[in-house]
Amino acid sequence: MTESTTAPGLTSDELQELDDLLDDLRQRGEEIPQWEFCDGFLAALVCSRRPIPLAEYLPMLLGDGAALDLAEGEALPLLPAFQDAAQQARFVELWLRRWDEVVQQLDAQVESLDDERTYQPEAMDMRGAIASLPEEERAEMEGQEIPSFGQVWALGFMFAVENWPEDWAAPRDKEAAQWLDDALDSIVALTEDDTGKPEVCMYSEDGPASTSQARVEAFGEAIWAVYDLRQLWKSLGPRVETLRKPPEPGRNDPCWCGSGKKFKKCHGA
């Protein structure tokens, strides 16, 4: 009997390295998103009905959106946002490590969000983090729009959904289609601002209240929604393209085979 392998999760130092990498990429591309957004985007790709290749999705996340047309086995060319091939390779290495971790978490049989194997989105409580700063530092950020807990993660998830609509199209089965809608609704809810009364701090246990209890519950529902989406597409399998039979020509029309005869005197005979 072989022991199951466990995907090594990213350490806090490696997560900080990803943040630093993205900061550096922004010097060459202003639209480079935060890691929280990237993590939501990654989760959606893991849940997608069709396995979307790296050459198709990485330019959408960090480039101009144009998928790279690569032959099988061909190496990924250097994207403009990266300083050099080594930097790109390191980002991809960390990205794929996180990918494997998310796959393992979503495929685990968990019954509670308290289970240590449960999927943990890289969601930030920016409001809690800022509220925990010294007063003079908080004053410097006054007037800025601060995203709600989990909001940037959810925006990243839906960014992937919206950019591959065919892969997220509702299945024909009504029950499965409702399952899809309900799960996506739970994630879309997190893209909205948290306007409830701050009751808890997700940044630190003893930090100032920054997040409503309703938001915490909505976040939990979004995690279960990701599990549902992963299971839904796994159960349905890849979309099968049905080939439509071309309409049969009329009996007096030229035959489709190119013989020059009428259909009724050729293949329609």
Number of domains: 1
Order of secondary-structure elements: HHHHHHHHH
> Looking at the structure, what is the overall shape?
globular
**Proportion of residues in helical segments:** 40-55%
Rg, Å, rounded: 24 Å
Q: Number of helical runs?
A: 9
**How would you classify the helix and strand content by structural class?**
mainly alpha
Plain-language structure description:
The chain contains 9 helices and no strands. The chain is mainly α and 269 residues long. It has one domain. Helix 2 crosses helix 7. The longest helix is centred in the C-terminal third of the chain and has 24 residues, at 213-236. The radius of gyration is 24 Å and the shape is globular. The N and C termini lie far apart (64 Å). Residues 241-246 have low confidence and may be disordered. InterPro entries: SEC_C_motif, YgfB-like, YgfB-like_sf. This is UPF0149 family protein.
List keywords for this structure.
UPF0149 family protein; mainly alpha; YgfB-like; YgfB-like_sf; 9 helices; 269 residues
What is the structure about, briefly put?
It is built from 9 helices and no strands.
How do the helices and strands line up, and which of them pair or pack?
Elements: H1 12-25, H2 35-47, H3 54-62, H4 85-107, H5 126-131, H6 135-140, H7 151-163, H8 174-191, H9 213-236
Helix pairs in contact: 2-4, 2-7, 2-9, 7-8, 8-9
Protein name: UPF0149 family protein
Pfam families: SEC-C (PF02810), UPF0149 (PF03695)
Organism: Paenacidovorax monticola
